[in-house]
Amino acid sequence: MILGVCDWLATKTKFTAKNFRIFFVLAALIGGFGLGAYLLLWLVKVISEE
Q1: Neighbour tally for 38: CB within 10 Å
Q2: CA of 50: how far to CAs of 11, 27, 34, 43, in Å?
Q3: What is the DSSP string of 1-50?
Q4: Phi and psi (nearest 5°) for 13?
Q5: Whether this model's pTM surpasses 0.70
Q6: In angstroms, rounded to a whole number, what is the distance separating the alpha carbons of residues 50 and 3?
Q7: pLDDT tens, position by position, 7-31
Q8: pLDDT at 1 over 80
């Protein structure tokens, strides 16, 4: 929703964007892994769109 990572991942996989959002929120709450992974995937998304 913020950077479009979950929607982008949903188009690349068979999971829904809602599933990815839940994963990233839970991962952010458990050790902060979700935020780093989200930002890393955002960079991959931006680079792959060019």
Answers
A1: 20
A2: 17, 29, 25, 11
A3: --SSHHHHHHHHSSS-HHHHHHHHHHHHHTTTHHHHHHHHHHHHHHHHH-
A4: -125, 180
A5: yes
A6: 16
A7: 999 999 999 999 999 999 999 899 8
A8: no
d(CA 36, CA 22): 15
Length of the chain: 50
Residue 24's CB: how many other CB atoms inside 10 A? 19
Q: Return the structure tokens found at 31.
A: 């050790």
Tokens 């955002």 sit at which residue?
42
Round to whole Å and give the CA distance between 11 and 35. 20
Report yes or no: 47 and 40 within 8 Å, Cβ to Cβ.
no
